Amino acid sequence: MIWEVFRQERKGQAFQxxxxxxxxxxxxxxxxxxxxxxxxxxxxxxxxVPREAILEVGDFVDELKRNYHRVDGYPLKEKLKEAxxxxxxxxxxxNQ
Amino acid sequence: xSDLLLSIADDELILGWRDSEWTGIAPFLEEDVAFSSIAxxxxxxxxxxxxxAARELGTTADGLAFDxxxxxxxxxxxxxxxxxxxxxxTIARHVLYETADEVRxxxxxxxxxxxxxxxxxxxxxxxxxxxIHARMWAERLAxxxxxxxxxxxxxxxALGVLxxxxxxxxxxxxxxxxxxxxxxxxxxxxxxxxxxxxxxxxRSVPGAAW
Lengths: 96, 210
Hints:
The structure holds 2 protein chains of 2 kinds.
Chain A: E1 2-8, E2 16-22, H1 26-37, E3 45-50, H2 77-95
Antiparallel strand pairs in A: 1-2, 1-3
Chain B: H1 2-20, H2 29-57, H3 61-66, H4 77-80, H5 87-109, H6 114-141, H7 145-159, H8 167-174, H9 191-204
């Protein structure tokens, strides 16, 4: 049975994934988690979670490229390039 | 006093050595790391006890650990047995030894010598984790014929870890009968090869500082 271990370095901080270990039950999992992720005072708390208890969600669809609601921001590079190209074309038309 | 210190320190050193023989070949990776770490703790306890004894005897911890002849060691036969690659017997010894050690440490913690009782308390805080480890394995293997046979086989050896007056307490804790113990004092023939290997580097350059 595989257990995922999350480690909190200091009180108040978020738990971060530290790694995984193999153990037949909760008691063994606790023992090995202490040994692998706690013995050197590198953690102040651990979460030890059976891997099958984790609901993994992925595969996010964005077919219509509605990139304005992305958390990494609104990429302008492409739009600016397109706008410059349009401006160049219309300026050319004006000269005629 | 130094007699008592030496018998406990020798138990811890030799058991630490025996447990470390599993490093790299324990049943699975997680247990390999955990059991090696227990081995390392036992050797650490031995060092602290040797240091205390060394002051009394006017020598050094290394001198006590490595410069005596095999016959001068005071360890109990239980810790001398080479049990690799038998995990059932290894865990049986672990469970028996940790339980006996708990009885012995409790006695030291309550003793009049404050330095020794302080050290015993420190050691006990680490041993508490060894006991958790031993118990979880004992529960897991309970009823397995190989494990139960190993407990029966090693029980007289476990009694020999403790002085006679503490044995009834151990028997009661484990629900086993008081039988004739395999006493400390006579060594098994398995100690000498261990000693050869353990002291090899030290003997190769006598008097060198490492």
